[in-house]
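Issue 218. Parser rejects a valid record. Input:
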Amino acid sequence: MKVWTTLGFVASLAIAAAAPAAAQTSDAAASPAKPDAPAPTGGAAGYSPELVAKGDALFHGSANCYACHGNKAEGLVGPNLTDAEWIHSKGSYDEIVAQINHGVPKEESKSGIAMPPKGGATLSDDDVKAVAAYVHSLGHK
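Output the parser choked on:
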């Protein structure tokens, strides 16, 4: 009788010890580990400083944006892009991307001079996003 009592006691200890491990295993299976979230990219609209730098280089280089908006983006023929006043949208990053892609017809332009789609430059979609990140960063500091 004593052997059965000892075996029963040992068995119940083994079951009790295994229960938390089983609970942990089933909890882990029920809620799998979440993948690491992507690192924040910075910028109010979620763009990286590297994208802004690329946009700056394009704005002042091959995209030729500075020709109408000025070297400091404070406006010439095209409007000032450094203030909080947005003429053709509310100035969100996505709206700026759309504005660059579609341009501004002469009839909607304050100066009466049209902005052609992509400013008349040959820009890829990634280039447009970079220029938009740069422009957005100017008015949203």
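Fixed in the parser; the record now loads. The domain at 49-139 is CATH 1.10.760.10 (Cytochrome Bc1 Complex; Chain D, domain 2).
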